[in-house]
Amino acid sequence: MLRKFNDSRIARLALLLCIIGLRFPQAVYADGFTITCEESQVTIEYDGKLVTQYHFRDKDARKPYFWPVIGPKGKSMTRAYPMEKVDGEQHDHPHHRGVWFGHQGVAGTDVWLEEASKNFKGDEQQKFLASLGTIAHTAFTKISAEKNHVVIQSSNDYLDSNGKQLMADERSMTFRQAKGQLILDFDIKLMGKYGDVELQDKKDAGLNVRVPTSMSLTEGKGHIINSVGDRDVDTWSKIADWVDYNGPVDGEHLGVAFLNHPSSFRHPTRWHVRDYGLFTANAFGLQSLEPKADSGTFTLKKDQVVLLKHRIIFHEGDEKAAGIAEAYRDYAGSK
Q1: CA-to-CA distance for 293 and 237, rounded, in angstroms?
Q2: How confident is the model at residue 27 (pLDDT cuts 50, 70, 90)?
Q3: In whole numbers, what is the pLDDT of the chain averaged over residues?
Q4: Structural domain harbouring 139
Q5: Considering the domain boundaries, does residue 1 fall inside one?
Q6: What is the C-alpha separation between 29 and 1, in angstroms, rounded?
């Protein structure tokens, strides 16, 4: 039987080694969560089985992301493309990677798209490439594993194509297993660390999940429902406390519930949830998602902090079977 190692000196050493890119297990358990650092990713396991990997130095992606995400029944809860090409999946939007954050208008810089997203010719392609930025991982501030949860905290800089620092963020990402569900609490603090920065009203902005193709409405047999009762395509652009996307995944009926905490910026948020599988909590694109609304463009002032706070639940069944309304009430009552 494996012993637990949880000495604070070992934890500090593990964090240091992870920062410089050396493989080292932060904690070892006979059961429960474990976490391992490698040069460009952090691997999370539960009872010795893969839960997810956090890719923080993927140059093609230009941003950190979680993939794969293994949920109930051992099924993959996000599309594999573009990390892998799987027969039967949609091979569109190569910038949609697992679970990630992006924004198409940070001081005029695009940290949503990637180089592979467009294939223009000549000068037009060069202009496109010059518009692209990077969300660059700068440090891990906490990496810890306990039997019932694992925590990754990190910081990132938002850079334009010339490497100019536009703003920063601090992330806290906690995974738990509870009642057959995989739960991710994903908090992001956007920070005006380098001066004032304009965050533009864009349709493609926010925290995202790309659900499995079989769960989508267009290529699969899935359904979408939100907290106010809108269903399927009628959920797009609507304001809601939570949205649930559910459908078949490799022979099982599974779902992804996305919850917006009351303390999150511009709660309740609008949802850029698409019938083909994109699932975005977008607090920025107010007018892009609803033309009659006022513009959502705003200036993040120097040293100002804006909090985006969400919970993502990977579950069995539909939103009723998974008790998502009740889960939201519990989440809304937490700090």
Answers
A1: 11
A2: very low
A3: 93
A4: 8-332
A5: no
A6: 9
Give domain status of residue 48, yes or no. yes
Task: Please tell me the total count of domains within the chain.
Answer: 1
**Confidence bin at 21 (pLDDT 50/70/90):** low
Query: For the segment 264-284, what is each residue's pLDDT rounded down to a tens digit?
Result: 999 999 999 999 999 999 999
Token digits of residue 311? 């919970």
CATH number of the domain within which 267 lies: 2.70.98
Q: What is the 3-state secondary structure (H, E, C) of the chain?
A: CCCCCCCHHHHHHHHHHHHCCCCEEEECCCCCEEEEECCCEEEEEECCEEEEEEECCCCCCCCCEEEEEECHHHCECCCCCCCCCCCCCCCCCCCCCCEEEEECCECCEECCCCHHHCCCCHHHHHHHHHHECEEEEEEEEEEEECCCEEEEEEEEEEECCCCCEEEEEEEEEEEEEECCEEEEEEEEEEECCCCCEEECCCCCEEEEEECCHHHCCCCCCCEEEECCCCEHHHHCCCECCEEEEEEEECCEEEEEEEEECCCCCCCCCEEEECCCCEEEEECCCHHHHCCCCCCCCEEECCCCEEEEEEEEEEEECCCCCCCHHHHHHHHHCCC
Question: pLDDT per residue over 195-226, tens digit each?
Answer: 999 999 999 999 999 999 999 999 999 999 99
pLDDT digits (tens, 9 = 90+) for 288-306: 999 999 999 999 999 999 9
Structural domain contains residue 3:
no
Q: Which two tokens stand for residue 219?
A: 């290529």
Least confident stretch, 4-18, 79-93, 236-250: 4-18
Cα–Cα dist 9/23, whole Å: 17
Q: What is the CA radius of gyration of the chain?
A: 19
Q: Which of 93, 101, 82 is nearest to 169 (CA)?
A: 101
> Does the pLDDT at position 52 exceed 80?
yes
32 found inside a domain:
yes
